[in-house]
Design a protein that fits this description.
The protein contains 14 helices and 9 strands. With 400 residues, the protein is an alpha+beta fold. The chain has 3 domains: 15-135, Beta-Lactamase, CATH 3.30.450; 137-255; 258-400, 2-Layer Sandwich (Heat Shock Protein 90), CATH 3.30.565. The strands form 2 sheets. A 5-stranded mixed β-sheet has the order 5-6-7-9-8. A hairpin with a 3-residue loop joins strand 6 (321-328) and strand 7. The radius of gyration is 49 Å and the shape is rod-shaped. Bound molecules: adenosine-5'-diphosphate (ADP) and magnesium ion (MG). Adenosine-5'-diphosphate (ADP) binds next to helix 11 and helix 13.
Length: 400
């Protein structure tokens, strides 16, 4: 053990100044109780002890002075040579500031904030170390509590995130199911319409035609004297003719057989003509889709959108004119229907009950296309349907 004189301080003021204050210095070390201020010799043996050291580490001065400061260290720290390394670091760097678990006299541990400062005399010789220890257990525990709270929070966030992802997946699946259901409903509806249209057309149509032929046969054989019968027969013939036209129209509206026979463009022309005659709303056509080759699904979807949109124009718009454009490009088929009616605000008017608009959107979606409705209050409404041109979309369209 070396003799240590606290008068030789780190700042190396002259001994002359410090010697008279030696007593005061001891008093300082002995009475500060918030910190343990300890002097070690160059080997780490404890030279001084004070109130702070006793309060924090539990030893009385006579029990500890003269012992090596490694007594404060846990066994594993000693095994790793921590006390010696700390002194070496302090000696080479001048000072070390570390934190770690240390042991009190009763074996309990506390979290220590430790500053070890190398003390050298004026010639640079290492005389010992100053060690200031503060008990930071409360702060350490608070930090640990905070960390474990954070970890728990992270865990809960993680849990919630995966729950959300699961709900999201389920929602997406439900949505896909809904789309499939909508497609199925459309298909069933079209099938039903087709068979009703066929029955009306074939059965009723044939019956009416047979009636007409028989009536004509009777009329040809009526004696010229039976004027009243002749007039009745004439008016009956008119009724039958009208009924034949009606049956055709009803059947065609239910299922435009002409879609299969004469194609989409012609069916649109026919529907526009019929719409103009019945509603009195002028219908202007601009069809640039010659040699349009569409499968049944596409043709039906486009045609139904056209019909539904015209019905909306007649029912809601108050328009006097409708402009219809049908354009087929190599990539996309576009149907645009613009009216000059009162227009509308889609945000305000598209509600959950707008099944017409929803149905059109759904049809477009099924074909991998889009349906858009834009209204400008006071200026009219424009509906635009875009579906991929046939080459790339045949398979998708089969589901309708
Ligand atoms: N061409 C149009 N002009 C003005 N309003 C329209 C037009 N088309 C649709 N709308 C508005 O959008 C709403 C939703 O249309 P839709 O889904 O077909 O339902 P519905 O025709 O049964 O009312 C209509 O009630 C109407 O307010
Ligand atoms: Mg509608």
């Amino acid at each position: 053990m070396q003799e240590f004189s606290p008068g030789l301080s780190i700042h190396s003021p002259t001994e002359a100044v410090l010697r008279p204050n030696e007593g005061l210095f001891r008093l300082l070390i002995e009475s500060i109780s918030d910190y343990a201020i300890i002097l070690l010799d160059a080997e780490g043996v404890i030279l001084t002890w004070g109130a702070g050291a006793e309060r924090i580490e539990g030893y009385k001065s006579e029990e500890i002075v003269g012992k090596h400061f490694a007594v404060f260290y846990r066994r594993e720290d000693i095994r790793h040579n921590k006390p010696r390394k700390l002194l070496e670091d302090a000696a080479s760097a001048g000072r070390v500031n570390v934190e770690g678990w240390r042991l009190r006299k009763d074996g309990s541990k506390f979290w220590a904030n430790v500053v070890i400062t190398a003390l050298r005399d004026q010639t640079g010789r290492l005389c010992g170390f100053g060690k200031v220890v503060r008990d930071a257990t409360r702060r350490k525990r608070a930090e640990e509590d905070l960390r474990s709270l954070n970890e728990k929070l992270d865990e809960r966030v993680h849990e919630r995130t995966s729950q959300l992802a699961k709900s999201n997946r389920e929602l997406r699946e439900s949505l896909e199911q809904l789309h499939r259901l909508a497609a199925r409903l459309q298909a069933v509806r079209e099938d039903e319409r087709t068979s009703i249209a066929r029955e009306i057309h074939d059965d009723l149509g044939q019956a009416l035609t047979a009636m007409k032929m028989d009536l004509v046969w009777i009329m040809q054989r009526l004696p010229g004297t039976e004027k009243a019968l002749g007039t009745r027969a004439q008016s009956m013939l008119k009724v039958i003719d009208n009924a034949i036209v009606s049956v055709r129209r009803i059947a065609t509206t239910l299922r435009p057989g002409m879609l299969d026979d004469i194609g989409l463009a012609a069916a649109i022309e026919w529907q526009a003509q019929d719409f103009q005659e019945r509603s009195g709303i002028q219908c202007v056509l601009d069809i640039r889709a010659e040699n349009l080759e569409l499968d049944d699904g596409h043709a039906t979807a486009v045609f139904r959108t056209f019909q539904e949109t015209l019905t909306n124009v007649a029912r809601h718009s108050g328009a006097t004119r409708v402009t219809v454009k049908l354009k087929d490009t190599p990539r996309v088929l576009v149907l645009e229907i613009r009216d000059n009616g009162k227009g509308f605000d889609p945000e305000a008017e598209i509600s959950k009950k707008s099944f017409g608009l929803l149905g059109m959107k759904e049809r477009a979606l099924l074909l991998g296309g889009t349906f858009e409705i834009k209204g400008e209050p006071g200026y009219g409404t424009t509906v635009t349907l875009r579906v991929p041109s046939q080459a790339g979309s045949k398979s998708a369209s089969k589901s309708i």
